[in-house]
Design a protein that fits this description.
Blueprint (H helix, E strand, L loop, with lengths): L1 H19 L9 H8 L2 H19 L4 H29 L1
Helix pairs in contact: 1-3
């Protein structure tokens, strides 16, 4: 989950910028404005990392399972990007 949270700010900014090409004021809309102005996604990433670190310090036996799940998440995200690449390629 930490991976998703760490990348969320980049995704949100890319989404807002792509929408802004057609709807220039979208970045000023409350949802995006709040996210960017107050670092919401960055804060979520920090919190996710902090919670994960605390849990692993308290229960180090969970490290192998946590790393296994992180690999699964990374593969799944690669699949998302690959599929998005296919969609964009087909649209072009």
């Amino acid at each position: 989950w930490c991976v998703v949270e760490v990348m969320s700010d980049d995704w949100m900014r890319a989404l807002a910028e792509s929408l802004a090409a057609h709807f220039p004021r979208v970045v000023a809309e409350p949802y995006f404005h709040e996210c960017f102005e107050h670092g919401v996604e960055e804060r979520h990433a920090e919190e996710a990392m902090s919670v994960t670190q605390s849990i692993l310090r308290a229960r180090p036996q969970l490290l192998p399972e946590t790393l296994r799940d992180a690999r699964l998440m990374a593969r799944a995200l690669d699949g998302v990007w690959d599929r998005l690449g296919d969609i964009v390629g087909a649209a072009g």
